[in-house]
Amino acid sequence: MRRFRIIPPIIYRYVTAEILWPFLLSLFVFTGILFLARSLKLVDLVINKDVPVGDILLLFSYIIPRFLEIAVPMSLLLAVILAFGRLSSDSEIIVIRATGLSIRSLAYPVLLFAAAAMLFTTIIAFWIRPWANHRLGVGMFEIARRQTTSALVPGAFNNLGQLTIYAERIGQNGNKLENVIISDLRNPELMRIFFAKHGQIVSDEKSRTLNLKLFDGSIQEGAGQDFSMTYFEITSVRLPHRELLEEAPTRGGKKSNEMYIAELNNAIAALRREAPVDEKNQRRNLARFQVELQKRIALPFSCLCIALIALALGIQPSRGGHTWGAAANVAMGISLILFYYVLFALASTLGEQGRAHAAVVWMPNLLFAVLGLYLAEKTGSEQWLAVSEAIGDKLRWLAAKLRIIPAAQ
């Protein structure tokens, strides 16, 4: 008895191969573009802050996973459009249809390829990116710590943001200071001047903070002619180093985008159990964790939604394979994926600010899934020979109705 197969294996392998190479090339290009835009900040560390090149290259490697997570859906869309555009232009779609296979049947290898891309993106989102983000954060903090301590010159006024630090002597490793004077202008309404016999720079890798601990001194603070003096045995001054860091860590010494799925769930559960000391801040933190959790699932799932749209955009009548139609579909695909990420960013912001439920990040996926099913149905049933032609016909009909162009006879 012959086994029934929806798609002959040779067609399956052929379509997959047509998608694979454009996908890999697009993935390389998109990741490179995103990487270059983000790496300018790290290049500044090499040029202006004299950070060793080896450290920078290591930090570069930690940035790549976050861009792969974004580049995979983009590459999938462009690869499917190019693959089916090539099959259409060479009349191979007509040959495939002549064998009895429909466009709907060709959706199987596309969806399987999209499922593999989704699995790859899920692995990045669940495990690789959180680990890489955490290592990047720790590495940036270590650079900030070294830069802060090495930048202090004994017997000189050292500017660190709105802090001015003077130390008569500084230890060889840059951590211990003697006869310290600090001018703190971070609060424009309250000037503070610290005097201390000794000081020590203390770093906390868990909270990623740098503090200058002062011993045996006094604080003069006030505004205008009104000043007061307070004596202390021990006090601390937070040193600025945020120009190297993006966000302060939260629970467990990690930012929300550095947490694994289990850690996010634990953080959400802990926030729900806690008695609200600052209710507004607690709601904001809870929303941020919930949105991050939803994003880890929603972004990989977008591969399936985008694949259907790409399939419909790639189909072209053979006579139009090398005309403006194919280029229009590619441009339309790139515009749609950019619109998706703008919509995704907007939904994420609304969720993180508590203006909408965290599930709002699924809105772009829902919209693109409906659009993909509609376009796939129209092209699969051959009601539309190509999406670009259908849109062109609608625009010509609208222009004729508005009497911009003469009506067709």
Properties at a glance:
2 domains; 6 strands; alpha+beta; 409 residues; six-stranded antiparallel beta sheet; elongated
Topology summary:
Layout lengths: L8 H40 L4 H37 L2 H7 L4 H49 L5 E4 L2 E8 L5 E9 L6 E14 L4 E15 L2 E14 L21 H13 L5 H36 L9 H29 L10 H18 L6 H15 L8
Antiparallel strand pairs: 1-2, 2-3, 3-4, 4-5, 5-6
Helix pairs in contact: 1-2, 1-4, 2-4, 2-6, 2-7, 4-6, 5-6, 6-7, 6-8, 7-8
Structure summarized in a few sentences:
With 409 residues, the chain is of the alpha+beta class.
Notes on the structure:
With 409 residues, the protein is α+β, with helices and mostly antiparallel strands. It has 2 domains: 9-145 and 280-401, no CATH class; 162-239. Helices cover 60% and strands 16% of the residues. It has helices at 9-48, 53-89, 92-98, 103-151, 261-273, 279-314, 324-352, 363-380, 387-401; strands at 157-160, 163-170, 176-184, 191-204, 209-223, 226-239. Strands 1-2-3-4-5-6 form a 6-stranded antiparallel beta sheet. 33% of the residues are buried.
